[in-house]
Automatic annotation (TrEMBL):
It comes from the Eukaryota. InterPro entries: F-box_dom, She-1-like. It comes from Caenorhabditis remanei. This is F-box domain-containing protein. Residues 62-100, 442-479 form the F-box domain.
């Protein structure tokens, strides 16, 4: 831990160079030297060699290996390690250069929002979350090409970096770069995505992709599809073909092309375009899961397809077939000769959960269950729906109508909201009947009873009920909505569907369910438009591209309108939401209606002054589950949460907190924290304080279920003072051999400094990991007592 604060930015910049250097050798055709790539023949540093030694087991006999043997070893190195090795000697450089890289996927797609931008993505691992991937954005810059990428620097905001390639076309340069990675992987990647309407086939170097199992490509002509099919195997795992949105309803893949083995033999395909399958082709498909816009398949073809499955002659492991069409199908012809079980009240009672999930995920038409003649316990669901443009538009209106009553302060009438007192339609009433078990005695219930029933309805169902009568409207209005989470964030920068350029905005998100993926949420974006406020949201229409919709609120400030709208949802939920996120630089306290949030258990607040934090703390309970405090990136290294404020019970008592800012904890405060997981930029905590914190845990006096404590700082800590009086087990060769998988995972997830294992005096099978690096002292609870097969041992894992 010898570095000084003045040295850190330089080291961070060097790390950033190295991060991009892993792509260096492949950038030689796009102004290699502009990226600051190190010469492949430059001697490796001691740090490079030490890092590599851990991976290849030492250099003792390395020079004696011939090139073929070295290539076999290099195959097991990841790409950054190969870059280190290739700088050790000319022979090593040649061995690395001749070793194919395992490239899992390559993606090239052009940006339909900006006709002069194209994105290239490379994946080195099947798991996207692994992080083994990178992305470049190519765009035209006058006569030149600009290449942009994101650079991540420790403890700083990610930065966008770029280089300029002189006198060249961005489209062609992107394709050359993508194909160079294909070549580096010996053209053996498993997956390819090419969403470029005008792929420049005339400059392509592709001959064949022998290992390709999954391909997604977009085109407006069949010859482009044919060109790709000539370069991939006949037998795929899945296939996706699409055309531009403008052409989806009029351009058709011709019948003769659909005989291609890549279509007829693939087990799964999805076409975002019209496909002229004949009945014969449709019946000969081997796919167990497919979807396409139907042109020529007839009712008889569909009927025969179902009968083949019923008699045991259908495709193996059938999953689904979606035939999209707006034609007026003859349902009696499709179901002729089939034994049908309609989805009546009896079936929906028998399979209530399934029917509800099916309607939510797949949509709901006229549904029948069709059982197999071979095994009566197996069945298909046939869902027939009439898709019509007017009905789609009505559904879109209804989708936003669920927010209607809360838009009354922001030009309610501009959204086309249905009048709450308008009589409900038959469809509204039938839908509600399924949820509340009938209206037979509903009028006899008093308002309190109705409110108890309404509590169990989701929000769209409440909106249907409130239109049935004035009394029902009042009952719904008086029933709190279960709002789980409210977020208000200013100046988010990733609204690319609205604008490629950053703009001042406030995002309001409301979530009704603890699971974000449930879809029970919505998002509105508020921005200034002259003297007015523009509110935008995304509208989804079946089989169409999501569209941005908006309304204009006259003569008002977008910042205040966003806050009023967010707080209105808090009020509708009786201020009882569990989570709250407020990342607004200047929250307008003077117009706020918030008094107290009694059920709030998790809060994330960003501010540049302690009074804003104090204002929010006065409105939340003392006992939280987790707490996050942030300041803006420009202030993170200068602004500090003062010591006196840190005595707040919301900080001292919470079991988990994370501060993206400096916090002036004293040693005394640090030792009294109840949190088992903490992180903050450390100002005043001393080596003695850290030492005592660890000793408390060792003697059984630490916090219960301790997980981690991360103290970020650039100061030059005295390691001997931190470890004084502690029994340490260094992470030497013996320990790394004993816990090899854990050590590798720890370095990948937590980073690696000088590491020690420190064991509990109460239970020697329990231990901490102390990791000291240039910018952080980290303590993790990693060793846990584990019993298996009658034996007790320490199991090491990252908390």
């Amino acid at each position: 831990m010898s570095s000084t604060p003045a040295e850190e930015p330089k080291e961070e910049e060097d790390e950033c160079k190295l991060e991009f250097n892993i792509f260096g050798e492949l950038l030689d055709d796009i102004e290699h030297e502009n990226v600051g790539i190190q010469n492949p023949n430059k001697s490796a540093s001691k740090k490079d060699i030490d890092s590599l030694l851990k991976l290849i087991g030492g250099f003792k006999h390395w020079p004696l290996l011939n090139e073929d043997c070295k290539i076999e070893v290099v195959k097991y190195l990841d790409y950054p390690s190969r870059c280190k090795l290739e700088r050790c000697s000319r022979a090593d450089y040649e061995a690395v250069k001749k070793t194919p890289i395992e490239v899992y996927s390559v993606e090239l797609f052009d940006n339909e929002k900006d006709p002069y931008t194209l994105c290239v993505e490379e994946f080195f691992h099947h798991d996207f979350i692994s992080g083994k991937r990178f992305e470049f954005i190519f765009s035209q810059h006058g006569d030149d090409t600009e290449v942009r990428w994101t650079q991540n620097v420790s403890k700083k905001r990610p930065k966008s970096r770029n280089l300029i390639l002189k006198s060249c076309n961005y489209y062609e340069e992107a394709v050359k770069f993508g194909e160079k990675w294909m070549k580096k992987g010996n053209y053996e990647m498993k997956r390819v995505t090419i969403e470029m309407i005008n792929y420049p086939v005339e400059i392509s170097q592709l001959k064949f992709l022998p290992r390709c199992k999954s391909i997604r490509t977009a085109a407006d002509n069949v010859e482009t599809f044919r060109w790709w099919f000539q370069r991939i195997p006949d037998q795929l795992v899945d296939l996706q073909l699409s055309t531009s949105y403008e052409n989806r309803d009029n351009w058709t893949i011709p019948t003769e092309f659909l005989n291609a083995p890549q279509i007829m033999l693939t087990p799964e395909f999805y076409f975002w375009c019209r496909a002229a399958f004949t009945d014969e082709q449709f019946l000969n498909l081997k796919a167990s899961k497919f979807s396409f816009d139907c042109v020529n398949v007839t009712e008889d073809g569909i009927n025969q397809y179902i009968k083949k499955w019923v008699s045991g002659k259908g495709v193996e492991n059938f999953k689904q077939a979606l035939l999209w069409s707006i034609r007026d199908w003859d349902q009696s012809a499709i179901t002729r000769g089939l034994e049908l079980r309609p989805w009546d009240t009896d079936f929906e009672t028998e399979a209530a959960g399934f029917c509800s999930d099916f309607g939510r995920v797949c949509g709901r038409g006229t549904c029948y269950q069709i059982s197999s003649a071979i095994n009566p316990y197996e069945s298909l669901t046939l869902s027939l729906s009439a898709v019509q443009e007017q009905k789609e538009e009505d559904e879109c209106k209804l989708e936003f109508n669920i927010f209607g009553e809360f838009l009354d302060d922001i030009e309610h009438e501009n959204v086309g909201i249905l009048n709450p007192n308008k009589p409900a339609t038959k469809k509204d009433i039938d839908s509600l009947l399924k949820l509340i078990g009938g209206f037979q005695h509903w009028p006899l219930l008093n308002e309190d009873c109705k409110i108890e029933v309404v509590k169990y309805l989701d929000y769209p169902s409440r909106c249907k009920l409130e239109r049935c009568s004035r009394a029902d409207y009042e009952a719904v209005k008086k029933t709190p909505v279960e709002v789980y989470n409210v977020e208000m964030i200013d100046n988010e920068t990733h609204h690319y569907s609205l604008s490629m350029e950053p703009f001042d905005n406030v995002v309001v998100r409301v979530q009704f369910h603890h699971d974000f993926n449930s879809g029970k949420r919505f998002e509105l974006i508020f921005s200034q438009l002259g003297d007015d406020t523009e509110v935008r949201w995304t509208q989804y229409v079946p089989r169409k591209r999501p569209e941005s919709r908006n309304l204009i609120l006259k003569s008002c400030n977008y910042y205040e309108e966003a806050v009023k709208f967010g707080e209105k949802w808090m009020k509708k939920g009786n201020y009882e939401m569990k989570h709250l996120t407020i990342e607004m630089k200047n929250y307008p306290f003077e117009i706020s209606q918030i008094k107290f949030l009694p059920r709030c258990k998790s809060i994330r607040v960003a501010a540049d002054d302690v009074e804003m934090f104090r204002w929010w703390f006065q409105r939340i309970p003392d006992q939280l589950v987790d707490l996050q405090l942030l300041t803006n990136f420009d202030n993170r290294e200068t602004w500090t949460i003062p010591t006196e404020f840190l005595n707040a019970p919301q900080i001292m008592l919470t079991p988990e907190f994370y501060f993206w800012c400096r916090a002036a904890f004293t040693d005394e405060q640090f030792l009294k924290l109840k949190a088992n997981k903490i992180s903050f930029d450390c100002v005043n905590v001393t080596e003695d304080g850290i030492n005592q914190y660890i000793k408390n845990w060792v003697s059984g006096k630490g916090v219960e279920n301790f997980r981690s404590a991360l103290l970020w700082s650039n100061r030059n800590y005295d390691e001997s003072a931190i470890t004084r009086g502690l029994e340490l087990r260094p992470w030497d060769n013996n320990f790394e051999e004993e816990a090899a998988g854990f050590c590798c995972d720890f370095e990948r997830v937590c980073g690696r400094g000088t590491c020690y294992q420190i064991y509990s005096k109460i239970d020697p099978y329990e231990s901490l990991t102390l990791s000291m690096s240039d910018d952080c002292v980290a303590i993790y609870g990693t060793g846990k007592r584990t019993e298996w097969n009658g034996k007790t041992y320490s199991n090491y894992s990252i908390p």
